[in-house]
Amino acid sequence: MAADARRRTAASRATRLIVAAGVGATLFAAPAAASAATPSHASVFGSGPVVLARASEPVVINGRDIPSWSRLAATGVTAPFPSGVTNADGGDNVRSAHNGILTVPPDPRTGVNPDQIAAYRFDGSSWTEIPVQVDQMYLYHLANGHSSFSVYSGTDQELAYAWNPTAHAVGEEAWKKVFGGISGITNAAYTDPNPCTARYQLPGAAGQIELARAIANGVVSPPKSPGIPPDDYTQAMQDPVNAAVGTPQLNDDDQIAMMAGDAGVQAPGGTSQPTGTVANNGQEVSILDPTSSSDGSAQRSYIYLFLQPGGSHFTSSNGYVQMTRGANADQWIDRYSFSPASTEKLGVSNTSYGANLSGQVCVTAADNDANPKITTANGQPRASIDRQPSDAMTLTTPTYTVDASGRWMVRKLRVVNPGTSTYGPNLISRWKGRAFQSSPNSSVSLVGFEDEQVNWELNSALLGWRVGPVRAIREVWGADSGTNVTKVEIYYRDSYTFQYHVRVHPIPTDGLYTSWDFNYGQVSTYYNQLHAAGVPIDGTNTHSVGEVDSLPVTHQPAFVNSCDPTFDLCSALNNPEEIAGAHGSLVYVAAPLSSQNNYLPDQALLPQFSTLVNPEVVPYYRDDACFDDGTGDGPVPRPYPGNASTDANVQNGYVAYWKAHGAPSSIQYSDLKCQPPTATSPAYQQPSAITYQTLPFQGAIGEMGLHFFFTADSDNAFGPVPIDEIDAEQQVYPVPSSAPANLISATDSAAGHDYGLNVVAPLQTVVTPFGALPAAAPEVPVAALLPVIAGLIAVPVLRRRWRRRGA
């Protein structure tokens, strides 16, 4: 009876989440009035973190939402196949993010200057300026003819960000930073200021000397199709509309980002504009919470956009998000910069799949695995044929901080302690990516094993990065044989989003994984829609279906992470999950890319997650400290990343680690026992529990993510225009907390704590000219109603299943 009651309760809570459009909720507390002439972020949100879910939601609109302020964006035609393909496969070897022709269409409208846009809220009696960020976008045409797998990709079109610095943001178009240490320059008039560091091309005559040599060396491979101009390697490319008209102009595809928590009340008719703003040219952004009332009324708030000389007083220096490049972020490295035994080693597999940039490298491991061994002393320049900068970075907001040691290598996430400005311990072991299988121990894969560390990291480049007052953005280009795969990371004050543009060949045997692995002792409870009370994270699985470690007949090692329908709703989209503990909570929701990220206006209705040609995508969860999936940092660092755990080097590496950490000098690999303490043990979640006889290996601690079951091509059928690629995003809300609590259940929405609704039923916006008649309530788009439709189908089925199990 008790079990049946629990099932009915879980079903009821799942139903309430799915039909959350009928649940009452408070949008957010009314912000206090302020009127500083040059405000700081503290004057807007205050000194503590936002605690109400809706206040933490970003509000992003497009230029096309304000037709009186915007103009048509540039259009593009991609260089035809086989442009962007390596010479060996009959292509032109072009490596460029702009391998296409951009055209600025005529438009009688003149877009406003993005640098003149400012945002305000009305507090009932006065105006307060709030942060706003305008990010211009235009079509990129990605071509990496340096990759030996480029024959499959050619050139792919993508709407991406303009990375150039502006009056309010800083940034770099990082893929162009291929200079520094260009080999073979003997001109007496040329001096390389630092051969060990990646940079843009030098100005003037010196720059022309190194550019010519870079082309001769194959480092730079300019576009060759008629009408495509050569890339300017001295700086980031600006939006083509700006270049054509000679001044910055807001385009239909540009994005304007704000925070919902900054909104205020509606300014009454006749309210004067803020002092100093351009008269009769303001815009009212009405923000509606579709879940706020069950009687048809809706909770609304308002942000106002105005033009003013100099634009917003908020910039990258006083905004919500700070991104600091690592001390050695621009230092050239290659695979020989690491010992083969190093837990940090990179780029030892499929080395021909990346950008293959030649030049000098000044970091060399003494015991490198080159044959013959490289004897150049560390710190001295040596020749390399496959180098990349590390691109390490630290991202900090008042709510959380993230550290990445590279492009795919996101290593740390800490959440602020409630009521303080100090951050707690690192919650994650690693962001992980997998192709073909989830562990290198498998013996059934046709094509091997790929991971985020030894495969993807040095076979990728940083397309660009940008930081403004509301968000920081960086984009990664390339992942092994996914030559034009991209990952866009967008960091806001209280959340971050990873957007995936997957363009790859069909992938056997097991597909593709993206996941988050966590640190034992720092997270303690996992929540999903069927487990509102949560399950303990202790390194031992709470369910037995969905995790496969061997084939049923032959018993060959085969490691598959899938969904257990008795444990979770087996659709990854709009299905919130949560990892929680005493040092912060993390809410995860996957969804199709939002409308702001459509490639072209005429493609807005194309399916971005086509089940006809693309895989089923399911969530998975594995809490198994004994599951060594080949890379990771916890409970202990993984020796020889990427090698199977049966490899002698891996086993000897584990033994050496434990000998250096207190184990007897006589221990052997057979002495390492994986027997993690469960939630009923006194040692559960205690740091002292990580020993060579409890948690001796890198393992899966509350590991959760997405499993893409590939069935077909997703690289646009050898064409440039997106027709069958997989475009999705995973949004994460780090929430300050001192104890686990369910933050994804509709039962908490009345208190404003249901962070899942930020994605499942997002805020809706309508923009009207300031002073116009009140805007009609915006219609809830079909996408926001999909969870309701799914619930009407899925929940009765689940209830019948639970009744049968309880009978």
Count of extended strands: 37
**How much of the sequence is in beta strands?**
25-35%
Describe the main β-sheet briefly: 10 strands, antiparallel
What is the count of helical runs?
9
Instruction: Estimate percent helicity.
Output: 10-25%
Could you name the ranges where pLDDT drops below 50 across 5 or more consecutive residues? Answer: 1-51, 595-613, 774-807
CATH architectural category of the domain at 323-330 and 391-735:
Distorted Sandwich
SSE class: alpha+beta
- Spatially, the strands of the biggest sheet line up as 10-23-24-25-26-36-33-32-28-29
CATH topology of the domain at 323-330 and 391-735: Beta-galactosidase, Chain A, domain 5
Global outline: globular
The level-1 CATH class of the domain at 323-330 and 391-735 = Mainly Beta
Gap from first CA to last CA? 9 Å
Radius of gyration: 27 Å
Q: Give the averaged pLDDT, no decimals.
A: 85
